[in-house]
Amino acid sequence: MSATLRRIIDLGAGATARPGSPGDLRFHDNRTYLAETNTSWVRLWADWPLLQPDPSRAPGDPDGPGAPFLAAIDEQIAAANADGVKVLLQLYRFPLWANGLESLGAQRNTDAEISYHFADRISPAAWAAYVAAGRDPARVNPSRRALEFGLPPDGLGPDSAWAGFFAFCHDRWRLGRQGSGPFVHGFELVNEPNFQWWPQRAPAAGDDPFATASLTAQVPMAQMMATAAAVAAGADDGTLLFAPSFADSELGGRTVTQYDEFTTALLDALAVIGHAAGPNEVWSHHNYTDLERRSTDTKLQRMRGLMAGRWTGFSEGAQPTVFVTEGGVRLGKMAAYYPAEDRRAAQALSWRTGWERHVREDGPGAGVGMLAQYTTYADPGFDCGLLEPWPSTVRRPVYDFWASLPRIG
Amino acid sequence: MATISRRGFLLGGAGAAWAALGGWRPTRALPAAAAPGLSARRAATMRALLATLRHAPDGRFSALDARAAQARFARWYARQDADERRRVDAVLDAVEGCGRRGYGALARTATTCRSPRAARRAAAVAAAVDLAAVVCEPPPAEDERPPAIALEAGG
């Protein structure tokens, strides 16, 4: 039985991007829910475009446009601090001034915006539907990666705008701030770069723009990790740095890179730039599909196999160590995988099964330092909450299961 | 199980809806009285919200045809199950009138939040904006979360 399998609740990007919204830790009984479920970590989000929409104004400018969002982050971190809940702060997205897409930002939902880098942002099927509709967004507005996930052309190195943003966040909320202000135990540098970032690959060589080509996104990912480590080294106060926060989606193509391909490429890229991760650098991963499929042969363990002997970062117990910083069980997947089961009961059973397998020191649990639950209140568009969607306050069966688990870490 | 009655919503207006939000519960099986069609009052609330969002400073909704989008919303609403329609009803009742006060007021509601009461209002606005996004934003791709659309000041 693992003595270190921590649990974290991710309150979602909305908790700080939309103060007062259902995920806001300060309100809607969220602090009570964390306490009742013995949850020792919470994942909050710092959205760079909201905090610094104007590059001429520092993200900490008290009179700047980001001030309300900064206050929401400060106060939610402080609330967690007061409750003895550790904070993982997720740094999110790129402002359009940082990735050179401001002009496109003024043309959202037009053909010019939709068509930009379409093969790296849109699935072939969605693009075909859009084209068949005469490229008229009023008829078909295709699913696509947001402009704010476009990689900055100047990279993510020590002189980049992202480095400045990370330095601001680290200086404001690092663990060493304990006693003088809100503090976090860790920063997650990125969210799902293998799903959200674009482009992830070199341009297709032939006539098919959707053809896969060599992976390139591991280079900025490695750069980001090295940059953050260099900034954090100045403080050396034990603040953890989490990455790469891989999505475990089973999709593919140019818009989604599977975790295993990206893992190997990232480890190679880290070696190329000579970055050996230190003990404050934590490998993070998302595991919705392992939980939902009630897997014994988990993607997470396959990934650990690829990391073995190569990853030099944080470890405890069986090496290498992986923290799951986002996960959960979506009701829609329950209906698809277990049609004979009640969806809410199936959600609870999937979580129970996942917990019992991951709390062991062997098998699916080997080297796993944390499991994650995405949201307290369910997001109707990504429905894996412990409670029904707000304004309901009805606890689902999975809530009772979570509340039955011990507080660890 | 505490619920807000439809009559309570219709007669009590937005104030009663706010007061009752905290006790609202979904039920698995709604009484037969729950109509699948969006009421005219709620349709007007959504249309006003959509019209207001056109003034968001980031311009993402600037080309929005509020009337057409409201019609798409009504069709989407009719396809939802009873629990979801009930949730949508509660959200729209809670933001009734917000759209008429203009984008600036809506953004202030959504970004300044210092009390549980203000949080309930902000949460309702956030949920209503999410509903608007269903018919005027690209749908999330498979395995993708819908974006948390923030209402930035400055409009």
Alpha-carbon Rg of chain B, integer: 15 Å
Number of strands of chain B: 0
Low-pLDDT windows of residues of chain B: 1-20, 27-33
CATH architecture classification name of the largest domain in chain A: Alpha-Beta Barrel
CATH level 1 name of the largest domain in chain A: Alpha Beta
Shape of chain B: globular
Poorly predicted regions of chain A are none
Average per-residue pLDDT of chain B, rounded, comes to: 79
Q: Which secondary-structure class do the elements of chain A indicate?
A: alpha/beta
Order of helical and strand elements of chain B: HHHHHH
Kindly, what is the distance between the CA atoms of the first and last residues of chain B, rounded to a whole number of angstroms? 42 Å
* Helical proportion of chain B, percent range: 55-70%
Helix content of chain A: 25-40%
- The sequence of SSEs of chain A as H and E is EHHEHHEHHHHHHEHEHEHHEHHEH
* Biggest interface between chains: A-B, 53 and 49 residues
Annotate the secondary structure layout:
The complex is a heterodimer of chains A (409) and B (155).
Chain A: E1 6-10, H1 14-17, H2 30-36, E2 41-47, H3 48-51, H4 67-83, E3 86-92, H5 96-99, H6 102-105, H7 111-115, H8 118-121, H9 124-132, H10 161-173, E4 186-188, H11 218-233, E5 240-246, H12 259-273, E6 281-286, H13 288-292, H14 299-307, E7 322-326, H15 331-337, H16 343-358, E8 368-374, H17 397-403
Parallel strand pairs in A: 1-2, 1-8, 2-3, 3-4, 4-5, 5-6, 6-7, 7-8
Helix pairs in contact in A: 10-11, 11-12, 12-14, 15-16, 16-17
Chain B: H1 6-21, H2 40-53, H3 66-79, H4 82-94, H5 103-111, H6 116-136
Helix pairs in contact in B: 2-3, 3-6, 4-6, 5-6
